[in-house]
């Protein structure tokens, strides 16, 4: 039996709608003056300090956590959130991808630099699968089909325009819920309730050339019980601004999400571009010191992909005491890129007074120090409350 959901549609202005699809409605989407391309291209040998704790792949631990919340990073933007209340549990899986490649075909396209920490059959029961948009590294056909078969009660929540794509995978229409920004679905549990809200993001969509025909989103998950209220924000794939200039506007969506829904207890935030230009550069047979083909910095796609600096800034804007790094260390050019991302986030956190951790002490009874950014291994969990 499918998880019973009640859906609430929110009426109001829809500036992100267009006659042919959707758009980013904010000045932060387009710089006032186009950033010169050369500013974001680099040549020569790359340098990255060796991290004290290298990135590893661990076997996930999905064991019941009493009345705590377990958040497990499964690589790239895939995150499993396990919510608990007395006598019951509820699991939401965000942007699952267990395939070797994020591509229309498993024969070519961006491949994992690190293997998936588990397969679909190792997952605990899934109640809701939430997908942020239709790009191949977030809406993976093989993974979604396997999840639908393994968990016949799971429901699939997607932004507007994505329902037809999931249906083309063979997932039945009655299991798919399509939402606009600020729409939400609710589940009544024996000891409380769970609410999943489709929230704005500054990104794009496009699968098979249909750019902007479907909506993109972030997600806001909350659980209310007699004992507590838990709030989590999943950024998915999103940008904040276009450059570091003081005059450059920041995307107002994150402040609005906090104002309307409250500051999240944990924010799951992207910290790297991921499988884009770096993948194309990986086909270059020449070493860095000899190649005429440049590499791209994070700034080339900053309007739609957060840099580590943008992620820490977004954590502050949303008022989240804890953040988890996602969308990094998976579909990448090589391990040098991993080291660079780790070093950049470490530097930004140190400069901003944020405590960066590479492992989470789930046995600690007290909450984490204020403003903690977790950069976990594949398959590792953050356990809170």
Describe what this molecule looks like in 3D.
The chain has 385 residues and is α/β, with parallel strands linked by helices. The protein contains 6 helices and 20 strands. It has helices spanning 141-150, 163-168, 253-261, 277-281, 308-318, 335-352, and strands at 6-8, 17-18, 21-22, 41-42, 69-73, 79-85, 88-94, 128-130, 155-159, 176-179, 184-189, 192-199, 218-224, 229-234, 266-270, 295-296, 322-326, 355-357, 372-374, 381-384. Strands 1-11-12-13-14-15-17-19-18 form a 9-stranded mixed beta sheet, with helices on one face. A hairpin with a 2-residue loop joins strand 6 and strand 7 (88-94). The chain is globular, with a radius of gyration of 20 Å.
Structural class: alpha/beta
- Total strands: 20
Radius of gyration: 20 Å
Poorly predicted regions are none
Strand order in the largest sheet: 1-11-12-13-14-15-17-19-18
Helix content: 10-25%
SSE ordering: EEEEEEEEHEHEEEEEHEHEHEHEEE
End-to-end gap: 30 Å
Largest sheet: 9 strands, mixed
Number of helices: 6
Overall outline: globular
Task: Report the average pLDDT across residues.
Answer: 89
Work out the strand percent: 15-25%
């Amino acid at each position: 039996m499918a998880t019973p959901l009640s859906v609430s549609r929110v009426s109001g202005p829809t500036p992100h709608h267009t006659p042919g699809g959707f758009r980013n409605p904010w000045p932060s989407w387009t710089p006032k003056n186009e950033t010169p391309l050369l500013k974001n291209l680099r040549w020569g040998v790359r340098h990255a300090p060796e991290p004290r704790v290298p990135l590893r792949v661990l076997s996930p631990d999905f064991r019941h956590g009493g009345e705590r919340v377990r958040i497990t990073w499964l690589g790239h933007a895939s995150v499993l959130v396990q919510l608990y209340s007395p006598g019951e549990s509820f699991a939401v899986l965000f942007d699952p991808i267990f395939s070797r490649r994020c591509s229309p075909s498993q024969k070519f396209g961006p491949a994992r630099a690190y293997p998936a920490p588990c397969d679909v059959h190792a997952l605990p029961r899934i109640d809701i699968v939430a997908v942020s948009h239709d790009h191949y590294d977030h809406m993976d056909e093989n993974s979604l089909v396997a999840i639908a078969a393994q968990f016949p009660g799971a429901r699939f929540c997607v932004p507007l325009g994505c329902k037809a794509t999931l249906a083309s995978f063979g997932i039945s229409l009655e299991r798919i819920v399509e939402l606009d920004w600020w729409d939400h679905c609710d589940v009544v549990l024996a000891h409380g309730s769970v609410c999943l809200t489709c929230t704005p993001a500054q990104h794009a969509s496009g699968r098979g050339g249909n750019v902007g025909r479907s909506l993109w989103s972030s997600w806001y998950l909350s659980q209310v019980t007699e004992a507590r209220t838990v709030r989590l924000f999943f950024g998915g794939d999103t940008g904040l601004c276009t450059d570091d200039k003081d005059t450059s506007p920041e995307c107002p969506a994150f402040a609005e999400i906090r104002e309307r829904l409250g500051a999240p207890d944990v924010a799951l935030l992207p910290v790297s571009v991921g499988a884009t230009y770096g993948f194309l550069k990986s086909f270059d047979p020449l070493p860095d010191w000899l190649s005429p083909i440049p590499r791209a910095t994070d700034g080339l796609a900053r309007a739609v992909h957060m840099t580590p600096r943008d992620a820490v800034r977004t954590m502050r804007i949303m008022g989240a005491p804890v953040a988890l790094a996602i969308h990094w260390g998976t579909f990448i050019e090589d391990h040098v890129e991993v080291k660079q991302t780790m070093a950049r986030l470490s530097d930004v956190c140190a400069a901003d007074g944020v405590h960066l951790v590479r492992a989470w002490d789930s046995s600690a009874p007290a909450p984490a120090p204020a403003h903690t950014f977790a950069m976990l291994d594949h398959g590792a969990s953050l356990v809170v409350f």
